[in-house]
Amino acid sequence: MVTGKRSNRIAVRDMTQGRPMRLILGFSMPMILGNLFQQFYTLIDTMIVGRFLGKLALAGVGSTGAVNFLIVGFCIGTSSGFAIPVAQRFGAGDHAGLRRFVANAVYLGAMISAAVTIVVTLLCGRILNAMNTPADVYPYAYSYILVIFLGLPVTLCYNLLAGIIRALGDSRHPLIFLVISALVNIALDLFFIRGLGLGVTGAALATVLSQVLASVCCLVFMRTSLEILRFKPGEMAPDRDHMRKLLAMGLPMGLQYSITAVGSVILQTAVNGLGSDAVAAVTAAARVSMFFCCPFDALGTAMSTWGGQHVGAKKLDRVGEGLKDSVLLGGVYSVLAFGILWFFGRDLAGLFVDAGESALLDAAHTFLIVNSAFYIPLALVNIVRFLIQGLGFPTFAILAGVCEMIARITVAAVLVPAAGFFGACFANPCAWIAADLFLIPAYFHEMKKLRRLFARPRA
Asked: Which of the two residues, 434 and 459, has the higher pLDDT score?
C-alpha cells in the first residue's frame, strides 16, 4: 500500500498509486466491518424490541423503515456527496481547497439538517397515516420515528465527518468509532427498554445517543490527528462557489436516496395493507438482509473515493481497473451470501420473532431467498452508481433512483395485489435490475466524456 501523504502519525491513503485490488480491499474491509457493526446494533435493537416488547412493537418499528430511509437517507446521501469534492481536491493535491470544501460542507450540513428536522417532525403523524400504518402498530411507529427524526442533525453530522475522513483514504478510524458507538447503543437499548421501561422510544433514543458519541469521536480525531485539516486564516470563511459545488454533488445524492425511498414508501404502504404479520415478516427479513448487504455498501463507498481521487489526479485508466476488481469481489460475495441465506435464512429471521410464529418465519425466509438471488445486480448498483458520483456526475444518481422508484411502484401496484406477500418479495430485485439497465451504459458514456475532456490541450 502506498500512502504517500501523512498527517502526524496518521496516514491518509492515496488510492491513485498501487494495485487496485489491494487498495480497494484495504479500504473496504474496515468499512465492511464498520457496516457490520452498524447493522449489528440495528439487529440487536430489533431483537430487543421483538423479544421484549412483542410482535406489534416489532411491526411498528418495521413499518417506519421506508419513511426512515426516505428522510434519513436524504441526509446520509447529501453528506456523502459533500465528501466527493474533498476526495477530488485530495487527489489533486490541493489541500487548501480541500479545507475550504470541508468548512463549507459543515455550514451547509447544519442548515439542511435543521430545516429537514423541523419539517418532518411537524408532519410525522400525517406521514404515517398516509402510509396506511395499521392501527394496532401506529403508536409504536410514531413513538419510534419521532425520536429518530429529532436526531437527524446528529445523523447528518456523523455521516458528514466520517465521509470526510474516508475521502482522505482512511476507513479504519470510522470503523473504530462505529464499534464504540455500537457497543454503547446495545447497552443503552437494554437500559432504556428493560431498565427504564421506555419501550420503542428507548430504542430510538439509544440509536440517537450512540450517533452523538460517534460524531464526537470523529470530531476529536479530526482536530487532533489530521494535520491536513488544520485550517489557516481565511479557509473557514463561507464561500458561495464552494457551497454551490457542494450542493451540486450533495443534493443529487440525497435526492437519489429519497427518490428511491419514495418507491419503498409506496411499497411499504401496500405491505401494510396485508396486515401486521406481513409487516413483521418483512421487518425481520429486511434486518437480516441489511446485515448481508454491508459489503455492497462498503464497495460502493470505496468506489466513490476511488473515482473522486482518480478524477482529481486525472488517472482515468485506473478507474476501469478498480471497477473490474470491485465487480469481481461483489460477484463472489453474492454467491456466498445466497448459499448462506438459502440454508440458514429462516433461523436468522427467527432471532427477531418467537419460534412459534412458523408462518411468519416461512414468509421471512422466502423474502430472503428471493432477494439474495439478485445480489449480483445489487452489487452492480452500488459499485457503478457510487463510482459515477465520485467521478463528478451526481445527476445520474437521481435518474437511477427514479428507475428504482418506478420499479417498486410497479410491483406495489401490480404484483402485490396479484400475488400478495410473494409479489412484494420481488420489489427490490426489480428495482436493482432497473437501475443497472440505466447505470451501466451511463458509466461508459461519462468515461468517454472525461477522456475527451482530459485530452483537450490547455489554452
From this structure: 434
Domain boundaries in the chain?
4-453
d(CA 246, CA 408): 30
Report which residue type is found at 248: A
| DSSP calls for 290-333 | HHHTHHHHHHHHHHHHHHHHHHHHT-THHHHHHHHHHHHHHHHH
* Side chain identity, residue 413: A
Mean pLDDT of 35-46: 68
Q: What local confidence, expressed as pLDDT, does residue 4 receive?
A: 42
391 pLDDT tier (thresholds 50, 70, 90): confident
Which helix H or strand E contains 344, and what residues bound it? helix 317-349
- Which of 91-95, 122-126, 328-332 is predicted most confidently? 328-332
Question: Which cell numbers hold the place of 271?
Answer: 405491505
User: Is 6 or 283 the better-scoring residue by pLDDT?
Assistant: 283
The Cα–Cα gap between 365 and 291 comes to 15
Dmax (CA) for the chain in angstroms is 74
Note whether 327 and 379 are within 8 A (CB). Answer: yes
Contact 307/390 with Cβ under 8 angstroms? yes
10: left (phi over 0), alpha (psi -120 to 50) or beta: beta
**Residue 148: what are its φ and ψ, rounded to 5°?**
-60, -40
